[in-house]
Amino acid sequence: MSQRILQPGEIEALDRTAFPRIILPQPATRLRERAARLRHLAEGSPMGPFLRYLARLVDAQHAALDAVPDMPQPDAERLDRAQRHAMPLWQLPADIDPAWKPVMRAIVGHLQQGPGAEEANDVERQVLAELQNLDDAALGHLLASLWSNEHLNDSQRVRAPVVMAAVQVVMMSRASRLDLKTLPFVDPPTICPVCSSSPLASVVHIGGQEEGLRYLHCSICETEWHMVRVKCSNCASTEGISYRQLEPAGEPAQTVEELKASPVAASRYFSACMAEVCSKCNSYSKVFDQRRDPMLEVMADDINTLVLDAAMGQFGHVRAGSHPFLFPVDDGDDAATLDPDAGEGAP
Hints:
The chain is of the alpha+beta class. Helix content is 40%, strand content 10%. It contains twelve helices and eight strands. It has helices spanning 8-14, 27-42, 48-64, 76-84, 100-113, 122-133, 136-147, 154-176, 256-261, 263-269, 298-304, 306-314, and strands at residues 22-23, 199-204, 214-218, 224-226, 241-244, 273-278, 283-289, 318-319. Strands 1, 2, 3, 4, 5, 6, 7 and 8 form an eight-stranded mixed sheet that branches. The longest helix is centred in the middle third of the chain and has 23 residues, at 154-176. The N and C termini lie far apart (69 Å).
């Protein structure tokens, strides 16, 4: 029987422990896939106008990547401090590069004049014109308001998604250029090692070395970092973790015993999106499993599953993390910045 000597690269590939600790974003690919997913989810959805508006916003983000200048990456002193103190490289919002302002204007310009601009209604056009006319000082004040705990007024709320879209573009671009070998292990492990933001949700990957592994997905720079499963992404507790999902349409409710007895039934029953609930901190976060739906995209599918958030709120659970394009209308209210039921899908 012939034998072949494995080369070093092949040996690492066989090592199940040699999975990436951190996955940096690829902005162009991710934004293109997100826009396509939003349009797919919009088909036949009661939130169709809302999802199509967001698809155009993501298109504008993709176009604005060309407006991102070369920005300074962390120097040796910052890297050393982050590694020694187990802290993220950047602390937001203090470390958001001012390049976000011209990037935001590029996003607004694309929404006003780029492909799909004719779909905007009068309210959206007014919001875009107001944003384009704000000076740098006013934009800085608006950004500070979004990061504060103060209640946003109507004007701030309708402008917020475009501002956050610009911050995302800048932070994704910066994160994509980092050297993985220099990134710190952070404490607590529930914040992004790159920009210190909270995760939007968890993603269980399909394929490659990440097959079946869970990664937390940053809500701002979209870096992903590994966290073991059945662990709270808010307080890092491994006790009192349970899972909730909406009953699958067309599938009768089944007991745990029935699901264990029938793997085929279980595969149909369990959703690609579940809420991971922590009884210790009473929070929940969404877990998206690409093995159940390889086409899902975390930012798009998070919005498409707002009904799960509503259900969790009715049971008194508080969501850990938030979507960068959604802001509550009132304290304790989970309503989105854009009304999903609005016929025009406008801000």
